Amino acid sequence: MKPSYQDALAYFGVNGAHPGGLSLTKALLEREQISNATHLLDAGCGTGQTSAFIKKNYPCHVTSIDYHPTMVKRAMDRFQKEQLSIHLLQGSLENLPFPPNSFDIILVESVLIFTNNKKTLKELQRVLRPNGVLLALEMTAERVLSPLEQNNMCSVYGINQVLTEQEWVAAMKEAGFKSVEIKLAHSVFSHMLSTPEVEEEEMDRNVPHNMEMEQKLMEHSFILYTYGNIIGYRVYRAIC
After folding, report:
1. Burial class (CB in 10 A: 0-12, 13-18, 19+), 50
2. What is the helix (H) or strand (E) element at residue 39, kind and residue range?
3. Which domains, from first to last, does the chain contain?
């Protein structure tokens, strides 16, 4: 069985595998009210880079969850090395192992698109407290894509569909979120033009050479440069 794009990210331990990287995450968090009473969930935490930053810079309670066992192992190693008290679990965002009203803020960075987003959004809404905040940074189509464009992207990423901004907003409201704001919007190309200094994705250079994993990252780069004017990302801020 060929590796997925997520397998490749996990294998190479890619940190901040989303547009803007940790710098964008920092800017988003600065706008939120985060105190020692805040319970925050990093949903799809990957290598734990974002969770570690939050725990070191904010006084809140941090919980992290990821579905991929390699990512969970990398996050656990990071938290132990940096001696961070973060509750880490392996589990699916489509069936979260938390009771209702558990969190004040949920951060999701380029994760929803890899799940059944209808199930996941309902779960995120369920575990958020009243007036809780969902911050979601997600791949977004700049227009309705043709069947060929959809197929090309879905085959690389192993996803079902690339949604438009309107479709994401509708999905969030259908899941029960009261309001949805667009905090930032860019296509791949406009993001490149607006960011003079490109923040490189950190990765583990010590893993053995693996052609299939490397090929998957090359396919990702091909998609970005081929469709960079018609796909991009949005930062959605939804209130429970």
Report:
1. buried
2. strand 39-43
3. 5-239 (3.40.50.150)
Q: Are 38 and 60 in contact (CB under 8 A)?
A: yes
What does the alpha-carbon distance between residue 12 and residue 15 come to, in Å, rounded to a whole number?
9
Task: Detail the DSSP E strand segments found in 48-201.
Answer: 61-66, 87-90, 103-109, 128-141, 179-187
Alpha helix stretches (DSSP H) within 58-108: 69-81
Alpha helices (H) along 66-187: 69-81, 117-127, 147-157, 165-174
Q: pLDDT band at residue 15, thresholds of 50, 70 and 90?
A: confident
Q: Tokens 């939120």 belong to which residue? A: 32
Residue 16: the pLDDT is: 74
Proportion of the chain in helix, strand, coil states, percent, rounded to 5: 40, 25, 35
Taking the model in full, what pTM does it have? Answer: 0.94
173-212 pLDDT tens trace? 999 999 999 999 999 999 988 875 555 567 777 889 899 9
Helix 69-81 to helix 5-12 angle (10° resolution) is 30
Helix (H) or strand (E) holding 26: helix 21-30
Give the residue-averaged pLDDT of 155-167: 96
Question: CA-to-CA distance for 108 and 118, rounded, in angstroms?
Answer: 14
Q: Do 13 and 47 meet the contact criterion of CB atoms below 8 Å apart?
A: yes
Question: Taking Cα atoms as reference points, which of 187, 146, 188, 182 lies closest to residue 166?
Answer: 182
Which among 210, 202, 121, 228 has a CA at the least distance from the CA of 169?
121
